Amino acid sequence: MILSPPLKFKLRPSCSSSRRSRFEFMHPPSALPLKEEIQLEPLTGDSFIRPHLRKLSPYQSILPFEVLSTRLGRKPEDIVKLDANENPYGPPPEVFEALGSMRFPYIYPDPESRRLRAALAVDSGIEADYILVGCGADELIDLIMRCVLEPGDKILDCPPTFTMYEFDAAVNAALVVKVPRNSDFSLDVERISEVVEQEKPKCIFLTSPNNPDGSIIDDKTLLKILNLPILVVLDEAYIEFSGIESKMRWVKKFENLIVLRTFSKRAALAGLRVGYGAFPLSIIEYLWRAKQPYNVSVAAEIAACAALENPVYLENVKVALVQERERLFKHLEEVPFLNPYPSYSNFILCEVTSGRDAKKLKEDLAKMGVMIRHYSNKELAGYVRVSVGKPEHTDALMKSLKLLY
Ligand SMILES: Cc1ncc(COP(=O)(O)O)c(C=O)c1O
């Protein structure tokens, strides 16, 4: 145990009385009355932390694979991991070759990720000037908020959805105004319009396909929201599985639209952290100024470029996952205590019915080495989400579920 010496006086000039503040920065003379000493609070590390962050709850991340493996007493390869929407096929072989022959890991990366942005321009059909790359889409969500929000500004969130928006808003001292989705998980556009008018949130986060239910936002709905006086951040982390074209090119037409995408799902690079976004030129300029200069590592850029060199592999993996999603859906429909929702993504949300407990279901499957996602928040307490894996993963899940009938 480390014991720190008791500190008897504050270091920060936070008191209103000038008489007291004089004492705060110097050792008190030995003649200082005892009473004065007792009144001063002890100095603790958390007193330096910004007040809004002292109340922050940590983001609920999944357990690291090795930790999970130890906890379950199973080798990582014996775990059926269907809890974090990862892509079980892994990246194209070109990625491993490129990482293995990386020449300059000891040199800082290109702060502008030029090679990758040029490749993404070809891949997405929008010029590199509109594209910025980040350490995952997660970094870009935070960067957008840091550039857009003053403390006390509001964001509009439409739960249930990706909880990172709410989390980053809290980190950035912003307030979250919620317009819950309808019971079929579609957006309540009328309410969104009212709230934009009344509360004047600065930006809205829309996810299509939405995590956790896999529903998509149609063009008519998106256009209605784009016509409101609000910055629209459209998160397309799972767009490849939807059969719908990305809206990246729309940022040339709409000054209030940002579109985010990622290599985590489509190219199975979740562990290397590469996300990207398309931004109007009038916005991207400020993100360039505010971002960490070396936010995309040499390894991340090399891996993402190599993945884009093999579009056939990426397409085949996507087709395999979409086919497996349909097979998984049919199987889940047959489970007497699950009600799966049709999904345009690489996961399927299921309502847990017949009086079964969703948390217990997750725990029972985990004991059999099958990981699925359960939610601790109120609105999704009775649901689980299952990521789409390889056919053998579906088979293992179904076998384990049958043991619980
Ligand atoms: C909707 C959504 N957006 C963004 C992300 C994060 O993407 P990245 O891995 O690029 O940070 C996720 C991750 O699961 C997600 O579900």
From TrEMBL:
GO terms for biological process: L-histidine biosynthetic process. It holds the Pfam family Aminotran_1_2. It catalyses: L-histidinol phosphate + 2-oxoglutarate = 3-(imidazol-4-yl)-2-oxopropyl phosphate + L-glutamate. Pathway: Amino-acid biosynthesis; L-histidine biosynthesis; L-histidine from 5-phospho-alpha-D-ribose 1-diphosphate: step 7/9. GO terms for molecular function: histidinol-phosphate transaminase activity. InterPro entries: Aminotransferase_I/II_large (IPR004839), HisP_aminotrans (IPR005861), PyrdxlP-dep_Trfase (IPR015424), PyrdxlP-dep_Trfase_major (IPR015421), PyrdxlP-dep_Trfase_small (IPR015422). Keywords: Amino-acid biosynthesis, Aminotransferase, Histidine biosynthesis, Pyridoxal phosphate, Transferase. The keyword Transferase applies. Residues 78-400 form the Aminotransferase class I/classII large domain. Its cofactor is pyridoxal 5'-phosphate. Its EC number is 2.6.1.9. It is an enzyme of class 2 (transferase). The keyword Flavoprotein does not apply. NCBIfam families: hisC. This is histidinol-phosphate transaminase. It comes from Penstemon smallii.
